[in-house]
Structures are given as C-alpha cells and as structure tokens.
C-alpha cells in the first residue's frame, strides 16, 4: 500500500493565485514548491496541494460537510501551534477551536479555516492516537 515516503495529492480551485499563495505560504507557512501561470503547487504539511486557477471556485462554501480537507495532528502541541499561527496572522476562521465527541474514544479538538477561494480546511487532534486513521 502507501509507503511512508509517498505523498498524498489534492487539487483544488483558486480564484486568484497571488492571494492563494499569500494564504498558504505567508499565512499557513506552507512551502511553495512550484508556480505556473495557471497553478501553484504546495508542500502542505508533507503532502501536495495544487491550487488551479479556476472560475469554478466556491462562492459560498455552505457547510463543512461533505467537502473539506486538512491535517490531523498526532501531537497536541503541533495543533496548538497552528491555532496560534492562524490567530496571529489573522487567517479567516470558519469555525473556531471546538471539542467533538466528548467522553468517547473519537474525542478530538478541531478548527476550520477558509482560504481566499472559500475552500475549507479542517485541522484536528485526537486525544487517542488510535483514532488517527
């Protein structure tokens, strides 16, 4: 199956590459891998996100479900550091830090950001590491 060195790839629409790059690189601290006239490729926490210039981006993201993506952090301190970074850089918070499934094995913290093209990014930390997958 997947080797630990393999990289997950996700392509999403972007309405403007400059504002998209500012959000992901300057805001979230992702590494810009490549930039072309019609897309940017990012190292998104070790995986690859490609933001394609498109007029089909979401004008209204509606609800978080079913379409969103993000990272589940194994370490709580990494989750907390990203929350602080998002706050310090004034990123668009769609849903602030919340607690889900309290008292159950799948209990976790979550928060959601919205990028400039209204793509929703959810970040999580499970208290029980068995829930990572």
TrEMBL record:
Signal peptide: none annotated. Transmembrane segments: none annotated. Residues 6-126 form the VOC domain. InterPro entries: Glyas_Bleomycin-R_OHBP_Dase, Glyas_Fos-R_dOase_dom, VOC_core. Pfam families: Glyoxalase. This is Glyoxalase. It comes from Acidiferrimicrobium australe. The lineage of its organism: Bacteria, Bacillati, Actinomycetota, Acidimicrobiia, Acidimicrobiales.
């Amino acid at each position: 199956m997947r080797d630990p060195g393999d990289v997950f790839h996700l392509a999403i629409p972007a309405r403007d590459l400059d504002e998209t790059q500012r959000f992901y690189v300057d805001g979230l601290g992702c590494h810009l891998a490549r930039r072309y006239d019609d897309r940017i490729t990012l190292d998104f926490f070790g995986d690859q996100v490609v933001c394609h210039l498109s007029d089909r981006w979401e004008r209204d993201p509606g609800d978080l479900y079913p379409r969103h993506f993000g990272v589940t952090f194994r370490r709580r301190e990494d989750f907390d550091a990203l929350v602080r970074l998002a706050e310090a850089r004034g990123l668009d918070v769609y849903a602030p830090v919340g607690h889900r499934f309290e008292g159950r094995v799948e209990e976790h913290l979550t928060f959601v950001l919205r990028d400039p093209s209204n793509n929703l990014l959810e970040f999580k930390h499970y208290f029980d590491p068995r829930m990572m997958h």
